[in-house]
Each structure stands twice: as structure tokens, then as C-alpha cells.
Amino acid sequence: MTKHLFILGAGGHGKVAADCALLLGRYLSISFLDARYPQLQQASQWPVVGKGDELSLYQTADTEFFVAIGDNHTRQKVIKQLQALQCQLATLIHPTAVVSQTDLVGAGTLICANAVVNIDTKIGVANIINTCASVDHDCLVGDFVHIAPGVRVAGGVSIGDSSFIGIGSVIIPGKIVGTNCTLGAGSTLLGDMADNSVAVGSPAKVIKQQ
Predict the structure, then answer these.
(1) Alpha carbon 205 to its chain's center
(2) How many other C-beta atoms lie within 10 A of the C-beta of residue 45?
(3) Which pLDDT does position 171 carry in this prediction?
């Protein structure tokens, strides 16, 4: 254990990330940065030590940062700030997750408990592959994507940057989800989605453009 981990965002998602980091056993310390500090000083068993508005104060050679913000666009904004400061981004893969050795997983990504990412899939920067989600073989997932709990993504699917795939939804093989799309909870996607689309239902139908 040689690293110190700062997690930005002390909500439920942040606690999930911290629990994953704890189980990985590679950090000497885990602390939160959250805008609610000093009113909020503890998140579960971990301390909240600052607001995170001056990230350079926490940056050292043995420090990593993880952005635990569910909203894709907000997460992207904070990641860009960290990258501009040349901060090290933590990638957290839960010990119970199954991730093929052939997969590429981008920096700052969280793959949660019991998730599966199968062979020859590429996962971009700062993604969330949430609890019990599965992403099958030969998929391409862009940056700042959130795949919610229980999602089933079949083989050969492409998901564009900043898209959100809602809890329990299904995408059949070979479909394309564009950039900045939202697929509603429990939906079944049988066709492609153009950029900036919102689709819901089973089968899913586009209801608006974002």
C-alpha cells in the first residue's frame, strides 16, 4: 500500500467507490472531498477533509483522485480539472467484478460489484459500470458514460460519450447509442439511437432530443 486516495463526492456513489478501494487493499488512506465540508465531516467510516475547491493542495506523488459524481457532465468537468493539474486518476475495479484481460479500461473508471465486462471490450475514461451490470464482448464504451445497475449490454454494442443507460435496461447485439443519450430504466433497445436522444420503453422509442 503506497497511495493515498481522495474521493471527490461523499454521497452514496462515493461510499461505494470508497468501499471498493478499501477491498482492493492498495491505499494507505482514503478521504473524501465534498462541497458540504465542514458541515459534513464523515461519510460512513471515512473522513471528509475539505471541499475540493483547491485540488492542488492535495496533490503529491503518492496521491490518486477518484471522481464519485454520478452525473456524466459534472464528472467530466471535474475530471478535466484534475487532468489539467496532472493529477493521477484512480481506476477502481471491485474484486468480485469479472473483467477480461483483453479489455481496455480507461483511467478514472469504476467497475462495481458483480459487474461483468467480457472479452475485447474497450471502456473509456471516467465511466461507471454499476452493480451487476454486464457489458459483453467487442463493445465500445466512450468516455464519461454511466451504465446503471443491472443493465445488460449485448455483444458488439457501441455507446457514445456522456450517455446514460438506465437501471435494468437491455441493449441487443450490435446497436449504436450515440453521444449524450439517455436510455430510460427498464427499457429494451432494439434499434440505434442518434446523438442527444432520450428513449424509453420496451421496445424503446425516442421521446425527445436533449
Answers:
(1) 25
(2) 10
(3) 98
